[in-house]
Every structure is written in structure tokens, then in C-alpha cells.
Amino acid sequence: MSLLENNSDFKYNPYLVEGDRVFIPPTKEIIQISGGINYPGIYDHVENDYLLDLITVAGGFSRGADSTKVSVYRYENNVDSVITIIVDLKDFVSFTMNPDDRIVVGVLPSYRLNQSVVIRGEVNCPGDYPIRKNRSTLSEIIKLAGGLKESAETKTLKIFRNRHVFPGEREYVKLKSIPPNLQYPNEQSYYFAKLTEGELTLNFDSEDLLSGKGDAVILEDGDTIEIKEKVSSIKVVGGVVRPGLVIFEKGRDVSYYISQCGGFLPNSKSASIRIIKSGSDQKYRVNHTLLESGDVIWVPEKRNTGLTAFKDWVTIVGTVATSLLAIFAIKDNL
User: Fold this and answer.
1) 3-state secondary structure the chain
2) Whose CB has fewer CB within 10 Å in the chain, the N or C terminal residue?
């Protein structure tokens, strides 16, 4: 059956007719093969089987197999005395297998590794590109992709890398089964830190890298490079009359963009304005950074606790009044 299943040799798959009886004998002796073989596993041992027969039954050598390194581990006695026999390729056809032999086929290290990265966004030819392990750099792949478009915003360039599993995942899985109010303070802090964790990105100075300065970034298999389009505006959110976009003008300060959005609302906290930087999402005070295209101006708003409390009180009174009316209606019908 192995020759049929692994090698599609249909002469071992005869047609059955009415009255036939199929007898499958029990397994008595076995041999095992592993390593660079297409169908590793345990097979029945047949008297006078040769090593080449077993390799054929097991589907032949797999991609990257090293046929010069085929080892046979054989018992010399019935307990624990095992010897190792290295079989030459020319001897496969004549090397006889013994019961309980274990064959290991060597594998060529790093044989034709099929590694690649994806680059998308503002390059001339986005797509999937092959890389060389521990050698291909970000600048090399950008060149392969036809280079950057004029519209590319290099400061927002990101490399997403999610193939590695870092320490702490098991603890996070455990904490997910514990209600936050029952966690210790340090556990709770770690849990919420993991809860807000986004996709893993590789941190580096893209401006320095693409200008030829600093160390090159070595890419890894499965990386995704994302290059966004330049933004020609500033976004204003929060306590302004008309939140939205304003065309960026070099040299203009925060007050200009606020005025373009109709000015502050009465409940705005004008002393607490923050600038959220494009590419890093870091928040800065107004006087601690320069405005650039793509940035966000956030104007926090005061919480009107008095109005909120009043609304809650009205809701409660309305609910009570509805309940009383229902009770009176029921009494009138009795």
C-alpha cells in the first residue's frame, strides 16, 4: 500500500470482484526512516529489503536532502547496543535492512531558502521580493521595487515584523483568564500593556537610513514594509468649532490652524493642547516641537460634570415617574 500511496504505483492497487477476500497480515517487524525524505515514518520490514527499496517506498529524497549523509542506526543485541553505519550512495541498492533499523537522511543546511518580504505603498513596483538571509537590506529592497515615488513620506516608513514570539505571551494568556480586579497590581499593569499592544514594528531612524547614514536595516523573512503617501495638511481635533483638515503652511503656528477651524469652543482646555507627530504618534506640548505636514493638533475638552450629573438626575426622576404611573394605572384597573 505504501508504494501505491506514496508513489502512485497502481499495480499495487488491484480491482476487487465479488467474492474476493482481502487479508491484511499483522505487523511483525518494522523499520523507521526520517530526515530528508518525502514520507518519513515507520514501515513494515520485509525480508531481504534493501535500503533503496525503503527510500523508494518512502517517496524518495525530499528537497534539500543530502544523499551523502545517510545513517543507519542498528541494534547489535536485544537491549541497548546501537551502532551507526554510514551508507554510501553506490551501496543503497545492495545494503540489506534489518528489523528495527532506524535510517536518518541528512539535510543540506539552509538549502535554497525561499525567503521574501512584502513592500507596499509609495514605491514604483510594490509587491513580494526575495531576500538573502541575514544579508538583504531595506535600501536594497526599495531599489528592487523601483525606488521611492516623489509622493513617498519616508518619516512614516514602517517595517512590520510578527514572526517572532517574545517572552511573556504565556503569562498574558494566563492573565486573560483572571478578572482584572483579582489581579495583583503588577499583573494588572502588564495585562493592560499587552491589551493595548498593536502590531510589532521595527524601530529605526528612516530618515537617516534612506539618506545613507547609520547602520543598514537587515530584513527578515515575512517582513512587511509600508511607505505612506505624503500628507499636505494638518488635522485639528477636539474642542474647536469646526474640527477637520487645514492645508499645511510652513512657519505657521498652532493658533493659525485653530483659527482656521473657527476657534476654541467654550469648554476647550487651550492650555493643554498637544501635537501628535506623524509617523511616531508621540504627543508633545506646543512649544516642544515644530509642526509638520501630517501632524495632528489635539485640543482637549473640559468634562462638564455638572451637566452630566443633571442629565443623570433627570433620567432617574423620569424612570421613577414612569414606574409610579404604571403602579397607579394597575391600581385603577383592580
Assistant:
1) CHHHHHHCCHHHCCCCCCCCCCCCCCCCCEEEEEECECCCEEEECCCCCEHHHHHHHCCCECCCEEEEEEEEEEECCCCCCEEEEEECHHHCCCCECCCCCEEEEEECCCCCCCCEEEEEECECCCEEEECCCCCCEHHHHHHHCCCECCCECHHHCEEECCCCCCCCHHHHHHHHCCCHHHCCHHHHHHHHHHHCCCCCECCCCHHHHHCCCCCCCECCCCCEEEECECCCEEEEEECECCCEEEECCCCCCHHHHHHHCCCECCCECHHHCEEECCCCCCEEEHHHCCCCCCCEEEECECCCHHHHHHHHHHHHHHHHHHHHHHHHHHHHHC
2) C
- In the chain, the amino acid numbered 306 is G
Provide φ and ψ at 227, rounded to 5°.
Answer: -125, 115
What is the structure's pLDDT at 199? 82
Q: Which residue has the higher pLDDT, 269 or 208?
A: 269
Tell me which residue of 53, 90, 88 sits closest to 71, measured CA to CA.
88
pTM of the model: 0.66
Domains of the chain: 2-107 (3.10.560.10), 116-227 (3.10.560), 233-299 (3.10.560.10)
Q: What percent of the chain has pLDDT over 70?
A: 85
Amino acid at 99: P
In this structure, what C-alpha cell is assigned to residue 154? 519616508
Tens digit of each residue's pLDDT (9 = 90 or more) over 137-186: 998 999 999 999 999 988 888 999 988 888 888 898 889 899 888 888 89
Could you give the CA distance from residue 159 to residue 222 in angstroms, rounded to a whole number? 10
